[in-house]
From TrEMBL:
Its EC number is 5.4.99.-. NCBIfam families: pseudouridine synthase. This is Pseudouridine synthase. Residues 5-63 form the RNA-binding S4 domain. GO terms for cellular component: cytosol. Pfam families: PseudoU_synth_2 (PF00849), S4 (PF01479). Keywords: Isomerase, RNA-binding. GO terms for biological process: enzyme-directed rRNA pseudouridine synthesis. Belongs to the pseudouridine synthase RsuA family.
Length: 251
C-alpha cells in the first residue's frame, strides 16, 4: 500500500462519506489530522501513522478486514443472491464499505465457521487446492457410523462423480443405532473442499448427514461465544496464525 493517500479517499473507503460530503465536513471544520484542523479534504495523509478525527471521533483505518462468522442455516455463502439472504446481509453496516466476501462456501443448510474478508490474496491462498488447509466438521449422521467407515475415510473414498478424496480423519463421538432411531455424532477433518464434500463422503459409505457444522479452518476454531449469525473480527494472533498456515501447508 502507498504510504500516503488522499484524506477523502481514505475516509470514503471506511464509509464516512462521499468525496463531496467530506469536502463539506472539512469546510465545517469537522476533520482534524494530528490535532490540526483540515482545510483541504484532498490533502495527503498516511493512514497508518496520522491520527484522523471526524466530529471528534478517531477513524480506524485499515485496508483489509477479516471476520469470523458463525453461519446459521438458511443463508447462502455469497455476496448477493436473488432469492436468499446472504452471509454478507448479516454483517453490521460498518463493514459495508470494505466489500468482504466469504472465503469458500458452506451449504445453505450448514452452520458454523465462515471466514469473510476483502483480502483476495489470502482468500486465494486458503482456497488453493495445493495448500491442503484442514477443515473440521461436526456432523450428525443417520444412523450407525462404524470403524470401517473410519478406515475407509482414512484411505480416501470415491465420490459419486468418481473423484477420489484425499484421506480424511474421522472421529466417532457417538455411534448411533438405527433400531432406536439414534443418530451418530462425528468429527471429520478434510484437507480439501469439493462441493458438498462431507455429505458426499458419507453418501459414499451409504450414510446420510442430517446436520453439519464447520468447527475449524486451518488454525482457527469457531469462537463459542459467537451466536448463530454473529461475526467478529479476527484477533491479531488469529490473523497471523492464518497467514502462517497457508505458507506452511504447501505441498
Ligand atoms: N461439506 C458439505 O457437504 N457441505 C458443506 O457445507 C461443507 C462441507
Amino acid at each position: 500500500m502507498k504510504q500516503t493517500q488522499r484524506l477523502d479517499k481514505i475516509l470514503a473507503h471506511v464509509g464516512i462519506g462521499t468525496r463531496s460530503e467530506l469536502k463539506r465536513l472539512a469546510k465545517e471544520g469537522a476533520i482534524y489530522v494530528n490535532g490540526v484542523k483540515v482545510k483541504d479534504s484532498g490533502m495527503q495523509v498516511n493512514p497508518e501513522t496520522d491520527v484522523i478525527k471526524v466530529n471528534g471521533e478517531a477513524v480506524l483505518y485499515r485496508e483489509f478486514v477479516y471476520l469470523m462468522m458463525n453461519k446459521p442455516q438458511g443463508v447462502v455463502s455469497a455476496t448477493e443472491d436473488n432469492r436468499d439472504r446472504t452471509v454478507v446481509d448479516l454483517l453490521d453496516d460498518v463493514y459495508a464499505p470494505f466489500e468482504v466476501f466469504p472465503v469458500g462456501r458452506l451449504d445453505k443448510d450448514t452452520e458454523g465457521f465462515l471466514l469473510l474478508t476483502n483480502d483476495g490474496k489470502l482468500a486465494h491462498n486458503l482456497l488453493s487446492p495445493r495448500k491442503h488447509v484442514p477443515k473440521t466438521y461436526f456432523a450428525k449422521v443417520e444412523w450407525e457410523v462404524t470403524e470401517s467407515d473410519r478406515e475407509a475415510f482414512s484411505q480416501g473414498v470415491t465420490l459419486d462423480d468418481g473423484y477420489e478424496t484425499l484421506p480424511g480423519i474421522l472421529k466417532i463421538l457417538k455411534s448411533g443405532n438405527e433400531s432406536n432411531g439414534e443418530f451418530s455424532e462425528i468429527e471429520l477433518t478434510i484437507m480439501e473442499g469439493k462441493f458438498h464434500q462431507v455429505k458426499r463422503m458419507f453418501q459414499a459409505v451409504g450414510k446420510r448427514v442430517s446436520y453439519l457444522k464447520r468447527i475449524s479452518m486451518g488454525p482457527l476454531v469457531l469462537d463459542p461465544n459467537l451466536e448463530l449469525g454473529q461475526a467478529r473480527e479476527l484477533t491479531k494472533e488469529e490473523l497471523l496464525a492464518l497467514q502462517h498456515a497457508h505458507t506452511t501447508l504447501e505441498g
